Amino acid sequence: MRIDILTLFPGMFEGFLNQSILKRAQTKGLAEICIHDLRNYSTDKHGNVDGYAFGGGAGMVMMAEPIVLCIEELGKERPYDEIIFMTPDGEQFDQPMANSLSLKKNIIMVCGRYKGIDQRVRDHWITKEISIGEYVLSGGELPAAVVADAIIRLIPGVLSDESSALLDSYQGELLDAPVYTRPEDFRGYKVPEVLISGDHKKIDEWRYEQSLKKTEKRAKE
Ligand code: ADE
After folding, report:
1. CATH T-level assignment (fold) for domain 2-152
2. Which atom of ligand 1 is nearest to the CA of 112?
3. Less CB within 10 Å around the terminal CB: N or C of the chain?
């Protein structure tokens, strides 16, 4: 899978892409993530990428041209399955959406800043709009990173234990059971006896019960 991210702040992705699972996915050749600086696509004589909103109002709007030029250049190289705009008024991101995006071959993610992007880009180039939650961040970069992480870890071969992505909380109906590791006694707090019993039937039953309890509790909150 290939993900192209269009942003005014490419530096925000540096550390994130080069660590842990996203790094491993790229090294194994299972995912390719390319960051594009929209300032390189400005045709304005001052190198501007944003302007005042027609009709007035506070805040700058990202111009259509740099975004569309970048999309067009990428489109010459390969077909894209989705051109996604990260925006707080988009469709709410969730696990089923991550699952379906993880099956795509090439996607573009456009990160907005300021008051957003010129509506004509949204109307004529963007194919999907995603929000990661009902709150407003200062740009689409963190949301794009969240979505990229959620999708890439689902690609077969990215996680060392493939089955674990499928057993995650939110993949099924139930949330995950609690997990523990060494030591068995941490400052007087003990690991539940059943987990060190070696009785796998009992352990499975315990985990199932704990998952049910946690799911019910969260539903009431
Ligand atoms: N840009 C700013 N806030 C956002 C959010 N909650 N989701 C997606 N993109 C955003």
Report:
1. Alpha/beta knot (3.40.1280)
2. 1
3. C
Assess whether the C-beta atom of 103 lies below 6 angstroms from ligand 1.
no
Q: Is 136 in the pocket of ligand 1 (CB under 6 A)?
A: yes
86 lines ligand 1 (CB under 6 A): yes
Q: Which comes out higher in pLDDT, residue 53 or 170?
A: 53
How many other β-carbons are positioned within 10 Å of the β-carbon of residue 53? 15
| Domain 173-220 fold | Trp Operon Repressor; Chain A (1.10.1270)
Residue identified by tokens 């707090």 is: 189
Show me where the domains of the chain are located: 2-152, 173-220
DSSP structure class, residue 134 = S
Encode pLDDT of 83-126 as tens digits: 999 999 999 999 999 999 999 999 999 999 889 999 999 999 99
Strands, DSSP E only, in the chain? 2-7, 32-37, 50-52, 60-62, 82-92, 106-111, 128-131, 185-186, 189-190
Q: What is the number of the ligand 1 atom nearest to the C-alpha of 130?
A: 8
Residue whose structure tokens are 């600086």: 37
pLDDT tens for 145-202 read 999 999 999 998 998 765 567 667 777 789 999 999 999 999 999 999 999 999 999 9
Tell me how far apart the alpha carbons of residues 47 and 106 are, in angstroms, rounded to a whole number: 29
